[in-house]
Design a protein that fits this description.
six-stranded mixed β-sheet, 10 strands, about 35% helix
């Protein structure tokens, strides 16, 4: 189970926790979510923890995990997916037609064939944390997609819970869907060594996960501090192809250490600019 800090659409993300679990662990095991969230929240400075927004898929939409997030003194903000149960499905069927508002696409523009609605007052939420809202998205499946048993009247539904009280429904739903950037971070981690666990023991492989997390951390901060433009979003494969595979030599002369790069390398100028940018960062 992994937890990541999302630095935005135009930047990378850094790992906050990589928790190795047994092969029979469930996707909605609240104890594992609490452990991963606790390790992740211990990473940022104390004054930023209360401002954190915890996002999770439907595996994190459990009573125990939400109770842990909202308990004193944490009182964290959250946005987690919810499984569409029979109660929620019945509540969706009671939503009036004029209660649906257009949803947004990834660029924040109105998406044709998708709508959102607030069903907080409809499902049975007595056992849920106080102030929790339930927002549902209705969407026409793309051509060729097969309907699921939870799809109603030819539409596909997804549901999430949040404690955010302000903001447009479409903007809140878009914010929740942007959690999918976590899948990009996991894919990058697999390209950095997380795809296979090479050692035999469980504890040994946990150390391997720590090494992978350190590699992902170095990549993320190198991109944020040294690179500019699209290079901040490059994945490890592209970084290896365009930056890390450049031929170079370290030479000494006149009491100085120099790095010489191949002149015909198309991105040599960007590499030298990145190296020069790092010493210019104020310390502390």
């Amino acid at each position: 189970m992994t937890a990541w800090a999302d630095h935005g659409q135009d930047r990378n993300g850094e790992p906050l926790a990589l928790v190795l679990r047994a092969g029979n662990a469930g996707s909605n095991t609240a104890a594992d979510h609490i452990e991963a969230a606790g390790l992740a929240l211990a990473q940022p400075p104390r004054h930023l923890r209360r401002k954190a927004l915890v996002r999770a898929d439907s595996g994190g939409g459990t009573h125990e995990f939400l109770d842990w997030l909202t308990a004193k003194p944490r009182r964290l903000h959250y946005c987690v997916g919810m499984t569409i149960t029979e109660t929620v499905q019945a509540a969706i069927g009671e939503v009036p037609a004029d209660a649906w508002t257009p949803a947004y696409d990834g660029d924040g523009r109105v998406r044709e064939g998708a709508w959102v609605a607030d069903i907080t007052g409809l499902p049975d939420l007595d056992s849920r944390p106080a102030g929790m809202r339930v927002i549902v998205r209705r969407e026409r499946p793309h051509p060729g997609a097969q309907l699921r048993f939870t799809d109603i009247d030819g539409h596909r539904f997804t549901c999430f819970a949040t404690d955010t009280r302000r903001g447009q429904l479409a903007a809140l739903e878009l914010r929740h869907r942007q959690r999918a950037r976590c899948e990009d971070r996991i894919r990058c981690a697999k390209d950095t060594g997380l795809r296979n666990l090479p050692l035999k023991g469980f504890a040994q492989n946990q150390l391997w996960c720590e090494i992978v997390a350190l590699a992902c951390e170095l990549l993320a901060w190198t991109q944020m501090l040294a690179l500019t433009g699209d290079a901040r979003c490059w994945e490890p494969k592209r970084l290896r192809l365009r930056l890390f595979s450049v031929a170079g030599r370290i030479v000494r002369g006149s009491r100085r250490l120099r790095l010489r790069l191949a002149q015909n390398w198309p991105r040599a100028a960007g590499i030298t600019a990145a190296i020069a940018r790092l010493p210019a960062i104020p310390s502390g």
